[in-house]
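Pipeline run #58 for the internal structure catalog. This entry was flagged by the ingest filter as a single-chain record with no existing model, so it goes straight to prediction. Upstream metadata was stripped on purpose; only the residue string is passed forward. Reviewer on rotation: M.T. Logging verbosity set to normal.
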Amino acid sequence: MESGLLLALYPRKELAKDAGVSNSSPSSVEFSLGYLAESEADVDRILARAVAAGATTTEPPRDRPWGIYSGYFRDPDGHLWEIIWNRKAATGVSPE
């Protein structure tokens, strides 16, 4: 998409599993918003700031098998966010 915007579609069941949330009835907040951080430390910092501002962590930051480091939170309005650092894009090397 334009300006580096990415759109990724996942089945509801898989998003719920990855984000550590229940796979409940369809609702207007059953999607996640993603933010690409500049480093692993930035993922931790941004999630900590979100929690300090009233967000709730649903899945703490960790290395994912597909080469990213990410964590999830719900903002005070219930929207699900994923904060992501893409190791491969940053370094050009896939994790082993």
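catalog note: The chain has a mean pLDDT of 85.
catalog note: The chain has one domain: 2-91.
status: ready for reviewer M.T.
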